[in-house]
Design goal:
By secondary structure, this protein is of the alpha/beta class. It is built from nine helices and nine strands. It has two domains: 2-197, TIM Barrel (Alpha-Beta Barrel); 204-279, no CATH class.
Protein backbone atom coordinates (compact mmCIF):
# COMPACT_ATOMS: atom_id res chain seq x y z
CA UNK A 1 0.00 0.00 0.00
CA UNK A 2 1.33 3.45 -0.97
CA UNK A 3 0.97 6.30 1.52
CA UNK A 4 1.76 9.98 0.94
CA UNK A 5 2.67 11.75 4.18
CA UNK A 6 3.73 15.17 2.87
CA UNK A 7 1.66 17.16 0.36
CA UNK A 8 0.42 20.74 -0.01
CA UNK A 9 -2.77 22.03 -1.59
CA UNK A 10 -4.10 25.48 -2.43
CA UNK A 11 -4.60 25.98 1.32
CA UNK A 12 -0.82 26.30 1.74
CA UNK A 13 0.18 29.96 1.55
CA UNK A 14 3.41 31.79 2.35
CA UNK A 15 4.67 35.27 3.17
CA UNK A 16 6.60 36.50 0.11
CA UNK A 17 4.92 34.48 -2.64
CA UNK A 18 1.33 33.87 -1.56
CA UNK A 19 0.53 30.67 -3.47
CA UNK A 20 2.57 27.66 -2.35
CA UNK A 21 0.34 24.72 -3.29
CA UNK A 22 -1.19 24.96 -6.76
CA UNK A 23 -3.58 22.00 -6.80
CA UNK A 24 -6.84 21.70 -4.91
CA UNK A 25 -7.47 18.82 -2.48
CA UNK A 26 -9.84 17.28 -5.03
CA UNK A 27 -7.20 17.44 -7.77
CA UNK A 28 -4.63 15.82 -5.49
CA UNK A 29 -7.05 13.03 -4.59
CA UNK A 30 -7.85 12.29 -8.25
CA UNK A 31 -4.14 12.17 -9.09
CA UNK A 32 -3.46 9.91 -6.10
CA UNK A 33 -6.21 7.50 -7.17
CA UNK A 34 -4.72 7.32 -10.69
CA UNK A 35 -1.33 6.41 -9.23
CA UNK A 36 -2.72 3.78 -6.90
CA UNK A 37 -1.90 5.73 -3.74
CA UNK A 38 -4.07 4.33 -0.96
CA UNK A 39 -3.72 7.08 1.64
CA UNK A 40 -3.02 10.79 1.32
CA UNK A 41 -2.00 13.08 4.19
CA UNK A 42 -3.08 16.71 3.77
CA UNK A 43 -0.22 18.66 5.38
CA UNK A 44 -0.70 22.30 4.42
CA UNK A 45 1.55 24.95 5.92
CA UNK A 46 0.07 26.13 9.23
CA UNK A 47 -3.46 25.39 8.05
CA UNK A 48 -5.97 22.63 8.74
CA UNK A 49 -8.67 24.00 6.41
CA UNK A 50 -7.95 21.64 3.51
CA UNK A 51 -8.57 18.50 5.56
CA UNK A 52 -12.37 18.81 5.71
CA UNK A 53 -12.48 19.68 2.01
CA UNK A 54 -10.32 16.65 1.19
CA UNK A 55 -12.45 14.27 3.26
CA UNK A 56 -15.55 15.37 1.38
CA UNK A 57 -13.83 15.14 -2.01
CA UNK A 58 -12.40 11.69 -1.27
CA UNK A 59 -15.75 9.91 -1.03
CA UNK A 60 -15.85 7.07 -3.55
CA UNK A 61 -12.22 7.64 -4.60
CA UNK A 62 -10.71 4.75 -2.67
CA UNK A 63 -8.15 7.17 -1.17
CA UNK A 64 -7.99 7.38 2.62
CA UNK A 65 -7.40 10.92 3.93
CA UNK A 66 -4.98 11.38 6.83
CA UNK A 67 -5.65 14.68 8.62
CA UNK A 68 -2.41 16.58 9.01
CA UNK A 69 -0.53 19.85 9.02
CA UNK A 70 3.02 21.08 8.46
CA UNK A 71 3.64 23.32 11.44
CA UNK A 72 6.19 26.14 11.55
CA UNK A 73 7.59 25.70 15.05
CA UNK A 74 10.16 28.20 16.32
CA UNK A 75 12.78 25.52 15.64
CA UNK A 76 11.62 24.54 12.15
CA UNK A 77 8.95 22.56 10.33
CA UNK A 78 7.20 19.56 11.89
CA UNK A 79 4.59 17.36 10.20
CA UNK A 80 1.62 16.29 12.30
CA UNK A 81 -0.44 13.29 11.19
CA UNK A 82 -3.70 12.09 12.71
CA UNK A 83 -4.57 15.32 14.52
CA UNK A 84 -8.10 16.62 15.04
CA UNK A 85 -7.62 20.39 14.94
CA UNK A 86 -5.17 23.04 13.80
CA UNK A 87 -2.00 23.50 15.81
CA UNK A 88 -0.69 27.03 16.18
CA UNK A 89 2.68 27.95 14.76
CA UNK A 90 5.60 29.54 16.59
CA UNK A 91 5.86 27.18 19.55
CA UNK A 92 9.10 25.39 20.39
CA UNK A 93 9.57 21.98 18.78
CA UNK A 94 9.05 20.23 22.12
CA UNK A 95 5.75 22.02 22.78
CA UNK A 96 4.56 21.45 19.22
CA UNK A 97 5.26 17.73 19.49
CA UNK A 98 3.49 17.56 22.85
CA UNK A 99 0.42 19.18 21.29
CA UNK A 100 0.46 16.73 18.36
CA UNK A 101 0.58 13.76 20.70
CA UNK A 102 -2.12 15.19 22.97
CA UNK A 103 -4.42 15.00 19.94
CA UNK A 104 -3.50 11.37 19.35
CA UNK A 105 -1.27 12.13 16.38
CA UNK A 106 2.29 11.30 15.41
CA UNK A 107 5.02 13.61 14.14
CA UNK A 108 7.50 13.41 11.29
CA UNK A 109 10.51 15.68 10.91
CA UNK A 110 10.50 16.87 7.28
CA UNK A 111 13.72 17.81 5.46
CA UNK A 112 15.63 18.21 8.77
CA UNK A 113 18.88 19.43 7.19
CA UNK A 114 17.56 21.34 4.15
CA UNK A 115 19.55 24.33 2.94
CA UNK A 116 16.58 26.64 3.45
CA UNK A 117 16.97 26.07 7.20
CA UNK A 118 13.31 25.10 7.56
CA UNK A 119 14.14 21.76 9.19
CA UNK A 120 14.47 21.14 12.93
CA UNK A 121 17.94 19.62 12.50
CA UNK A 122 19.00 17.32 15.36
CA UNK A 123 15.75 17.94 17.27
CA UNK A 124 14.33 15.54 14.69
CA UNK A 125 15.21 12.77 17.16
CA UNK A 126 12.18 13.88 19.17
CA UNK A 127 9.82 12.89 16.36
CA UNK A 128 8.32 9.48 15.59
CA UNK A 129 10.00 9.35 12.17
CA UNK A 130 12.40 11.46 10.13
CA UNK A 131 12.43 12.17 6.41
CA UNK A 132 15.60 10.72 4.91
CA UNK A 133 14.30 11.61 1.46
CA UNK A 134 12.44 14.72 0.33
CA UNK A 135 11.89 14.99 -3.42
CA UNK A 136 12.37 18.78 -3.37
CA UNK A 137 15.87 18.62 -1.84
CA UNK A 138 17.44 18.90 -5.28
CA UNK A 139 20.91 19.46 -3.84
CA UNK A 140 20.82 15.74 -2.84
CA UNK A 141 23.29 16.35 -0.01
CA UNK A 142 20.58 17.32 2.47
CA UNK A 143 18.94 13.92 1.94
CA UNK A 144 22.23 12.04 2.20
CA UNK A 145 23.02 13.87 5.42
CA UNK A 146 19.62 13.04 6.88
CA UNK A 147 19.86 9.38 5.86
CA UNK A 148 23.30 8.99 7.46
CA UNK A 149 22.22 10.77 10.65
CA UNK A 150 19.02 8.71 11.00
CA UNK A 151 20.94 5.48 10.43
CA UNK A 152 23.60 6.44 12.96
CA UNK A 153 20.99 7.29 15.60
CA UNK A 154 18.79 4.26 14.88
CA UNK A 155 15.70 6.36 14.12
CA UNK A 156 12.73 5.50 11.91
CA UNK A 157 13.18 6.73 8.34
CA UNK A 158 10.43 8.27 6.23
CA UNK A 159 10.12 9.89 2.82
CA UNK A 160 8.04 12.76 1.51
CA UNK A 161 7.11 13.95 -1.94
CA UNK A 162 6.53 17.43 -0.49
CA UNK A 163 4.18 17.72 -3.47
CA UNK A 164 2.95 21.22 -4.28
CA UNK A 165 0.98 20.15 -7.35
CA UNK A 166 -0.27 16.92 -8.90
CA UNK A 167 2.91 16.47 -10.99
CA UNK A 168 4.98 16.09 -7.83
CA UNK A 169 2.73 13.48 -6.27
CA UNK A 170 4.13 9.99 -5.69
CA UNK A 171 7.81 10.92 -5.80
CA UNK A 172 8.45 10.15 -2.14
CA UNK A 173 5.71 7.87 -0.83
CA UNK A 174 5.84 5.24 1.89
CA UNK A 175 5.35 1.61 0.94
CA UNK A 176 3.44 -0.22 3.67
CA UNK A 177 4.03 -3.92 4.24
CA UNK A 178 0.30 -4.48 4.66
CA UNK A 179 -2.88 -2.85 3.42
CA UNK A 180 -4.61 -0.59 5.92
CA UNK A 181 -8.20 0.58 6.15
CA UNK A 182 -7.84 3.15 8.91
CA UNK A 183 -5.72 6.17 9.74
CA UNK A 184 -4.89 4.72 13.14
CA UNK A 185 -3.41 1.53 11.71
CA UNK A 186 -1.25 3.53 9.29
CA UNK A 187 0.07 5.76 12.06
CA UNK A 188 0.91 2.72 14.20
CA UNK A 189 2.77 1.13 11.26
CA UNK A 190 4.82 4.31 10.73
CA UNK A 191 5.76 4.48 14.43
CA UNK A 192 6.94 0.87 14.27
CA UNK A 193 8.84 1.44 11.05
CA UNK A 194 6.81 -1.15 9.16
CA UNK A 195 7.33 0.47 5.77
CA UNK A 196 9.75 1.15 2.96
CA UNK A 197 9.66 4.10 0.61
CA UNK A 198 9.87 5.27 -2.99
CA UNK A 199 12.49 7.94 -3.75
CA UNK A 200 12.53 10.00 -6.95
CA UNK A 201 13.58 13.63 -7.25
CA UNK A 202 11.24 16.17 -8.75
CA UNK A 203 12.35 16.90 -12.34
CA UNK A 204 13.87 20.36 -12.81
CA UNK A 205 11.26 21.13 -15.47
CA UNK A 206 8.44 20.43 -12.99
CA UNK A 207 10.07 22.53 -10.27
CA UNK A 208 10.63 25.39 -12.71
CA UNK A 209 7.03 25.35 -13.96
CA UNK A 210 5.77 25.32 -10.37
CA UNK A 211 7.97 28.27 -9.42
CA UNK A 212 6.86 30.37 -12.39
CA UNK A 213 3.17 29.51 -12.03
CA UNK A 214 3.07 30.38 -8.35
CA UNK A 215 4.70 33.74 -9.05
CA UNK A 216 2.16 34.44 -11.79
CA UNK A 217 -0.74 33.61 -9.49
CA UNK A 218 0.76 35.64 -6.64
CA UNK A 219 1.84 38.60 -8.77
CA UNK A 220 -0.19 41.40 -7.16
CA UNK A 221 0.47 40.19 -3.63
CA UNK A 222 4.20 39.69 -4.25
CA UNK A 223 4.55 43.06 -5.96
CA UNK A 224 3.10 44.75 -2.92
CA UNK A 225 5.51 42.82 -0.69
CA UNK A 226 8.48 43.87 -2.84
CA UNK A 227 7.50 47.54 -2.77
CA UNK A 228 7.00 47.50 0.99
CA UNK A 229 10.05 45.49 2.04
CA UNK A 230 12.85 45.71 -0.55
CA UNK A 231 15.33 48.49 -1.25
CA UNK A 232 17.35 49.13 -4.42
CA UNK A 233 18.75 47.39 -6.37
CA UNK A 234 16.91 44.33 -5.01
CA UNK A 235 13.56 46.04 -5.59
CA UNK A 236 14.18 46.71 -9.30
CA UNK A 237 15.62 43.25 -9.98
CA UNK A 238 12.77 41.50 -8.17
CA UNK A 239 10.17 43.63 -9.96
CA UNK A 240 11.68 42.78 -13.35
CA UNK A 241 11.79 39.07 -12.60
CA UNK A 242 8.19 39.10 -11.37
CA UNK A 243 6.94 41.02 -14.42
CA UNK A 244 8.87 38.70 -16.74
CA UNK A 245 6.59 35.81 -15.77
CA UNK A 246 3.88 37.43 -17.91
CA UNK A 247 5.88 36.24 -20.94
CA UNK A 248 5.89 32.60 -19.82
CA UNK A 249 5.39 30.19 -21.52
CA UNK A 250 7.71 31.69 -24.13
CA UNK A 251 11.34 32.55 -24.83
CA UNK A 252 11.79 33.82 -21.29
CA UNK A 253 11.64 30.17 -20.16
CA UNK A 254 15.14 29.61 -21.60
CA UNK A 255 16.41 32.28 -19.21
CA UNK A 256 14.55 30.65 -16.33
CA UNK A 257 16.15 27.30 -17.17
CA UNK A 258 19.62 28.84 -16.94
CA UNK A 259 18.73 30.39 -13.58
CA UNK A 260 17.37 27.04 -12.38
CA UNK A 261 20.55 25.12 -13.15
CA UNK A 262 22.71 27.86 -11.63
CA UNK A 263 20.52 27.70 -8.53
CA UNK A 264 20.82 23.92 -8.24
CA UNK A 265 24.60 24.08 -8.67
CA UNK A 266 24.88 26.79 -6.05
CA UNK A 267 22.67 24.85 -3.64
CA UNK A 268 24.92 21.79 -3.92
CA UNK A 269 27.99 23.84 -3.06
CA UNK A 270 26.21 25.65 -0.24
CA UNK A 271 24.78 22.44 1.18
CA UNK A 272 28.17 20.73 1.12
CA UNK A 273 29.98 23.56 2.92
CA UNK A 274 27.24 24.28 5.44
CA UNK A 275 26.67 20.62 6.24
CA UNK A 276 29.79 20.27 8.36
CA UNK A 277 28.54 22.92 10.77
CA UNK A 278 25.05 21.39 10.94
CA UNK A 279 26.22 17.87 11.70
CA UNK A 280 28.40 18.98 14.61
CA UNK A 281 25.52 20.61 16.46
Amino acid sequence: MLVETHIHTTYSQRLKILYEGLSTPAEMIKAAARQGIGALAITDHDSFKGVAVAKKASKGSGVLIIPGQEISSSDGHIIALGISEEIKKGMAAEDTIDEIRSQGGICIAPHPFDIGRFGIKTKARLCDAVEVFNSMNLDRIANIRSHDWVTKNNLIPAAGSDAHNTQMLGLGSLVMRDDHNSVDSILKAIKKGRHGYHARYAPTSVMLRWAVDRMKLSREYTMEYIMSNYSEPKKSISTWLLNSTKHSPGRIDYFYQILAYIGIGSSVIYSATRGRRVMHM
